[in-house]
Specification:
2 copies of one chain form a homodimer. The first copy, chain A, is α+β, with helices and mostly antiparallel strands and 88 residues long. Chain A has one domain: Phosphoribosylformylglycinamidine synthase subunit PurS (Mth169, Chain: A). Chain A is 32% helix and 36% strand. Chain A contains 2 helices and 3 strands; from the N terminus they run E-H-E-H-E. The first copy, chain A, is elongated. The termini of chain A are close together.
């Protein structure tokens, strides 16, 4: 059993209204030290597989086919083996 | 200048419809090895500050006051110093 942690972020040149909104809210709350905010997605996937290499390949395919929009987003991920094969 | 990377996830007992939807979509695409999917938020914040300690304290307050809903979410973050003080 493997656990993949996937981070999907907007490319630096893409406008990020969610990040701007968060920045505005933080400023309103008095956090004047905020310079920039970028919002992204964080996805944890548990998957079965024969090897770490195979799991990494599978996760890469998931990102390409579904999780990230390659036009405006980039992704990175890490896969680690977990001990228990049962449900959480 | 500091860069904070913040990960906000739903608590394990909280229902995650977004994660279930992603899981369903992955299964439909043929990724039969998927066992579980949890969706969360990933936020990058650039902030100024006098010290790493102060920046960490500020980010913790941001999480408590705005970024995470303590009823259903947990958060973790890491803060690192960045070289350039100018805009990205």
């Amino acid at each position: 059993m493997y656990l993949a942690k996937i981070y999907v972020t907007l490319k630096p040149t893409v406008n990020d209204p969610q990040g701007l909104t968060i920045r505005g809210a933080l400023k309103t709350l008095g956090f004047d030290s905020v310079v920039d905010v970028r919002a992204g997605k964080y996805i944890e996937i548990k998957l079965s597989g024969d090897s770490l290499d195979a799991a990494q390949q599978t996760v890469k395919e998931m990102c390409r086919q579904l999780l990230a929009n390659p036009v405006i987003e980039t992704y990175r991920f890490e896969v680690q083996e977990t001990a228990q094969p049962g449900p959480q």
